[in-house]
Amino acid sequence: MIENDPHSNIITKKISPILLSNQEQLKSIEPFTLSPIPLNNNNNNNSSDEEDDEKSVIVNSVTQVQLPPHIKSISGQQQQQQDDDTDEVLAISSIQGYTQSVYKEILYWISVILTCGIALLVYYWFQIFYINCRYKKCELSRAKYLLIESKDQRFEICPVQTSTDNISTNSSSYVLYRFSKFFYNPDTNNFEKSSIQNSHKKSDLITLVKQGLGNEEVSDLKNLFNENVIKIPLKSIPRLFLEEILHPFFIFQIYSVCLWFSEEYYYYAIAIFIIASVSAILNLREIRQNLLSLERIAYFSCPVEVLRNGQFETVFSIDLVPGDIIKLKQSFTLPCDLTLLTGSVILNEAMLTGESIPVTKYSILPPDLSTSVPEETYNFKAEKRSLLFGGTVIVKLLSHGSDTEVLGMVRETGFQTTKGKLILSIMYPKKSHFKFLSEAMKFIGVLCSIAMIGFAISVWRLYSLGEEGKTIALRALDLITIVIPPALPMAMSVGTGFALGRLKKQQVFCISPNRLNMGGKIQVFCFDKTGTLTEEGLDLFGLLLSNGGSVGNCQFQSMHKSEDITNEQCLNSNPLMKLVMSSCHSLSNIDEKVSGDPLEVKIFQVTNSIIRDESISENHIEMENRKKIYFLERFDFQSKLQRMSVVIKTEDDSHYSLVKGSPEIIKQLCLNETIPLDYDQKLSEFTEKGYRVLSCAYRSVTPLELSQYANRDQLRLQTELNLHFLGFIIMENKMKPESPGIIATLQKANIKTVMVTGDNPLTALSVAHQSGIIKKEQSILFMGVVEQDYINWELVSKDKGDYHRLDPSTLLLDSEEFSDYNLIVTGPVFKKLYHNYLQTGSQKFNNMLKRGVVYARMTPDEKQTLVEELERIGLYVGMCGDGANDCGALKAAHVGISLSETEASIAAPFTSTITNISCCPTLIKEGRASLAVSFKLFQFMGMYSLIQFTSVIFLYFIGSVLGNWMYLYQDLWIIFPLVIFMGMTRPSTKLSIKRPSGRLISGAIVGSLIVHILVCISFQMAVFFLIRSRPWYNDTQIDDENIFTYVTTSLFIFGSFQYLIMAFTFSHGKPFLKPLYTNRFLFGTYLIALFTTLLLLFLPTQKVWTFAQLVILPVSFRLIMFAMVIANLLANILVEFLFYYYKTISKKKKVQNPTLIFSKDIPRDNRITEHTVLLPIS
């Protein structure tokens, strides 16, 4: 029965869920509401372009089934806000419906028949043209096909399919777009995506845990959602080869081969066919390998135990649907995203994040399911502590008892999982603003224009010579095939292929090869701090404890160094601090080894305690005196809160809330009378030296107080207020020995280095000094605290001690002396300015991006925003991190490098198993080498085609042509090996201050090519006229095609030398490549080709010259030609030098960059001592 709900605009179908016992229960359950988000529709003629842009987002499916409560959805607007960050790949800009038209269908087939099938190729190449020629536009309700435009202006044609299920006859039409189903909603006249709700009641989940889904519910859900598998469409080799040979360029090559066979140019035609086939096979091999590599990461299937109809049964994971209850096991790789319902698990998330530190997840249901549960609403997005991600591995299970199971509920399946969305982002990367490929196509268009001009000239000249029409047509068409080099596609990719191979040998692995060339353009490189610039682990430096004095007299005790802390008396005399150090953590016991965050491990180990977590009910800490501490609640660290806490119970039935976190936040949560008077002073004293400081606090709680808050967020809020400050834990985070040298290398190459961290800004500043990101001689700003809702900045020059105000509206200094300076930005200020920029478009935010060098107290989302905004202002950005909190930033960067021991990680396009930043300059150098080789090969191939084109045009003027052997010698003996081996040139050992151009159509590139070709044409013209002016010149035709002539021989030999000249000219190494002689294969090939060409010029034999269709030239003219070759070489070298090396260098003295700590501050006039801290730099 179909029901229309006027309030929700949804269609529902009532079925009888097995877990519902009567009709009243059925009525009380809301229908399966998959809420719509507006989708731009081209049929809506009233929408303006601006409105279209605002509406271009994905929608949730209208298809509704009355299923168990966990499958309900939330309001469209709320769902949109939550999914925008993850469903960007599925975001749609516009959608247009098409249906069949008898009139257009007839015209379509007439065009195919009249063109002998050529029209099919045109339709295949131009999909939008095809759909408009064959089908007519229509309303979405009648559409048989949809033309979908993505956010990045890519078009896909998707056939409308009909669902065979019985969910809703009015909503049976759907399309499969990027592996997601979009059902037609007649109420909104849109195709909308299926999804499930983000919130539901815990009591409903308990019911589901006991019964599971029913067969009918599973069937309905299978029709709404795809199979639970991330299956990459792995096309067969024949199909891939077919797609390769249907490429316009390959079709052009086939046309050329057919043309040459008709002219009996058999050898050359076969050679070109082989070259084209090899190019296609190499491209096919690269595509296939990339797909196979991605499939190995993506595909996973395993048997699982699932609860259905009240009983556990074993099925393959491919059959799981959202809402299934599955049993979790030790060493189990999760096949989908789940919500942990019972027990606890410890996961290895290295596959997704690159982070090898285990992560603990907690259930949302109580240990005893028979107990009553408050009717609280559970939110999937908010409760990340219970979310298990597909692809991660269970390291350890913790159940509530020996007879209970650890259960999880399937949340997302297939490509809707977190892993699936990462795979989608690889398959459908953001449209790059990198212009190389698009401008390469434009350059080919220019070559085609030149070919058309040559075609016209050749037709005119051959006609004037009285050639037959067939001969004129064939030779004119020949000229077109000469201008488009047959090996061009291979030449454009060969450099990248060799570079990726070299990176793999250096333990850098790539899952997105198109990002490599972007690496050559990097202008800014961002680094995480802990685990990236500094060592992953921290050493305990000491404790600074409060004396717990009275109000106004609370001070710190003397410093307890690390060697003193192990003394039993130190911690025993401070039992509450010992409680925090032994209990306030997220550690676990795996194989009798403490595992977790290295910082927490170091703190825990000094207490000599033992973790006992064989089961949740017995999860406790055993102190060295055998006393036990039981965990009641654990609130994990959150970046936005900058703290973590636990609620514990001791053996004497005392209850405590123990908290540790950033000193700034803990200070706000503590009672003022417990804060030492010298809190800020001591904090600055240690943070400015680079130590990481954690504040610890506690308060007593009662069982009654704990029972008053059913909601965990409310409980956390209350137990973390009115704390008593205990002291500082001071950690020493040692710099990785490689970091300073690598930072210096990047800075010498004029690559801006930026630190992005969640740590204290003063600690970050110290690490920035140690690593060299900020030079120690640079000035520093006083940093204030958040006092009012505005921002003010001031700079103190270290040399003069004068104040220089920063204009709040521009972030520019009022002093011309300090026209160049840097900023240290805190997360709250970054967020404030970013929101202000979105609202007002103020350039203040952009100026901050250009000046910022250290960003502290940044959340993972803010890190990603920073990278995206740096790219928005036109910078090429690299990001290097350990993957833990950097995944978003790593994916957003042009080049993201995850430092991870896991080779197959999808946390970033690149993964280095050598876990230090030495991979960064290596990748940049390989990127520059790949880009430089691609440019040089493209220039070389362009020059090769134009040189040969010029030779043939001159020969057409005397009615001659190059012979087959001449073509073979030039194309196979000289060009083809040089192209292959030029790609093997290794990058320069030194990272240059220069960056290779990212544009083919630029003044330097185009100007260079024009002058080079003018030089080559001039010398060919000189040879042409010079030989015809010799007294011994004879133009008598002795063969049918007039090949055996002095002009043909001289232009062939001279043209061969010109290819070698251009190869030498474009093989110069500096500043991105090693010199020519270091590439042994290229250098050897070059010498062999040069040697054989010299033999043709100076040591002719009658037999060889006859075979090669040459005539013997007088010795005097050979010497003249050799002299012209030398002159041609010098001229081309001079041109290259003038365009790339001759630059006027002007040296100007620059003032050292001052450094600003950028923070929310109080006005200058109101500055007082307790609000500011001077940061001396030694």
Automatic annotation (TrEMBL):
Membrane topology: Multi-pass membrane protein
P5B-type ATPase N-terminal domain span: 94-183
UniProt KW Zinc keyword: no
Major localisation: membrane
GO terms for cellular component: membrane
Keywords from the UniProt entry: ATP-binding, Magnesium, Membrane, Metal-binding, Nucleotide-binding, Phosphoprotein, Translocase, Transmembrane, Transmembrane helix
Gene3D superfamilies on file: Calcium-transporting ATPase, cytoplasmic domain N, Calcium-transporting ATPase, cytoplasmic transduction domain A, HAD superfamily/HAD-like
Reaction catalyzed: ATP + H2O = ADP + phosphate + H(+)
Every P-type ATPase A domain range: 304-424
Residues annotated as transmembrane: 106-126, 265-284, 440-460, 480-500, 937-959, 965-984, 1005-1027, 1043-1061, 1081-1099, 1119-1142
EC number annotated for this UniProt entry: 7.2.2.-
A GO MF label: ATP binding
Presence of the UniProt keyword Protease in the record: no
InterPro entries referenced in this protein's UniProt entry, alphabetically: ATPase_P-typ_cyto_dom_N, ATPase_P-typ_P_site, ATPase_P-typ_TM_dom_sf, ATPase_P-typ_transduc_dom_A_sf, ATPase_P-type_domA, HAD-like_sf, HAD_sf, P-type_TPase_V
Subcellular location: Membrane
NCBIfam families named in the record: ATPase_P-type (TIGR01494), P-ATPase-V (TIGR01657)
Membership in a protein family: Belongs to the cation transport ATPase (P-type) (TC 3.A.3) family. Type V subfamily.
Protein name, as recorded: Cation-transporting ATPase
